[in-house]
Amino acid sequence: MSEMTHDVIVVGARCAGAATARLLARKGYRTVMVDRASFPSDMPMSSHLLWQSGAAHLKRWGLLERLQASGCPPMFEGSLNLGAFTLVGCAPSPDRVAAYAPRRLVLDSILREAALEAGAELRQHFLMDDVVWENGRVVGLRGGPHGGAQETLRAPLVIGADGRTSKVAKAVGAKAYNEIPAATGIRFSYFSGVPAQMEFIPGLRRMLLAVPTNDALTLVGVTMPVEDFLAGRDNVEQHFFSELEQWAPSLAARVRAGKREDAWLGGAVESFFRTAAGPGWALVGDAGLTVDPISAAGMTNAFRDAELLANAVDDGLSGRRPLDEALRDYGVQRDAGTMPIYQFTAEMAQLLPPTPEIGQFFGGLKNNQADVDKYFGVFAQTVPVAEFFSPDNMARIMAAA
Ligand SMILES: Cc1cc2nc3c(=O)[nH]c(=O)nc-3n(C[C@H](O)[C@H](O)[C@H](O)COP(=O)(O)OP(=O)(O)OC[C@H]3O[C@@H](n4cnc5c(N)ncnc54)[C@H](O)[C@@H]3O)c2cc1C
Q1: Which of 29, 64, 276, 347 is disulfide-compatible with 7, CB 3.0–4.6 A?
Q2: Which residue, judged by its Cα, is nearest atom 12 of ligand 1?
Q3: Where in the chain is the domain with CATH 3.50.50.60?
């Protein structure tokens, strides 16, 4: 058997991969990140609302100050404009953090630089081509620059943090489950001269969004059923503004008074879990778990799972527990931790027209600020879905309408 070049190889160096690599490097493991991209570079398809529980990870990792120093404004409150009235809420946050919407160029760079500072290596322009098997275990990977010389890196663990089309997942045969076809699409761009707090404005089978981000820009987006998203592809600008004017005329006027500073961006993706780990491999981030973007849970989930996975890997590689057993537990914890927000997101993603019960629910919320805050906390993943939507809690809220 050839010698191991590293303890862990992480494929993908963005929010899941760089976070995991940093945690492992800090624990003393020889960690290398490989990515086919060159950095710094953006992640243009994805909007980037990072809820309080995601920001709490950054705080715990000592990286929140770097995000704040980037000029990305904190969002302590969010508003949900229901036409007849607006709910303004502040998600409970035990860690006393706000939500943020950092450009991925900024956030991913902070995480990657922190991983490098912790001692991880980075190979850019490195396209992972296949994993290397030995005696039924993954023991490394092959890859290199696109069309260039291939090399083999060897390690007892290869982590796929290579996004939802993960080549690592394909190479190891990770099985998909709880699959849901793409239900929503979001179209967005960045505008100057459009001051905004975190604003949500529902339309009929729509959710419009404005959040401040880096460089004094505001991300303004429209989430809609995937068929409408695809129908608007041929005339994106006109489609975007007709949606905005129909459902959020006052936001439309603000956006018209500002200036678009970037391309039209966005996308629609299917939702799924994939088996989290197997002999010599594990998946983290979208590679193992992709959630419809409507609840903006992806990066928050990635941070939580980076921590779970790094702890499991440490248990295994330090010899405290068999590695395969620790990785199996990582998968169980990931699935249990995600399922409530996954199911809640799947319901939201249907973008069903409002019912009288929903009207009564919001009417009840209006009269109780603590409940409004907790409702925002469900999205921020600081209030458990099951607790907030328990029959008793729902009955209490609706009785107040
Ligand atoms: C339209 C849309 C909107 C979204 N909005 C939000 C939001 O508001 N908030 C939120 O939290 N989440 C959002 N998400 C989800 C979020 O983008 C993902 O959860 C997040 O990007 C996952 O990060 P990751 O590190 O797992 O993967 P990625 O960010 O996809 O990074 C994967 C990396 O792997 C590299 N890679 C891939 N294949 C290879 C290979 N073979 N060899 C080497 N490198 C490779 C890529 O170059 C890339 O750098 C949205 C997603 C979409 C599609």
Answers
A1: 29
A2: 298
A3: 8-48+103-179+270-346
CA nearest neighbour of 348 among 304, 398, 295, 289: 295
Cβ burial, residue 343 (10 Å; 0-12/13-18/19+):
middle
Per the structure block, which two tokens stand in for 297? Answer: 């849970």
Is the minimum distance from the CB of 46 to ligand 1 under 6 angstroms? yes
Assign 3-class secondary structure to 199-224: EEEEECCEEEEEEECHHHCEEEEEEE
- Which residue is associated with the tokens 């609706």? 398
For residue 284, give the ligand 1 atom closest to its CA.
26
Report the alpha-carbon distance of residue 365 to residue 98 in Å, rounded.
22
Put simply, whether the predicted model's pTM sits higher than 0.85 gets the answer: yes
**Residue closest to 138 by CA, chosen among 273, 9, 321:** 9
Mean pLDDT by 10 residues, the chain (401 residues): 88 98 98 96 90 98 98 97 96 94 97 98 97 98 94 97 98 98 98 96 97 98 97 95 97 97 96 98 98 97 98 98 98 98 98 95 95 98 97 96 91
CATH architecture of 184-267: 2-Layer Sandwich (3.30)
Q: Class of 8-48+103-179+270-346 per CATH?
A: alpha beta
* Residue 119, CA distances (Å) to 21, 112, 115, 168, 307 in order: 9, 11, 7, 24, 17
For ligand 1, whether the C-beta of 314 sits within 6 Å is no
Tokens representing residue 74 in the block: 């904190």
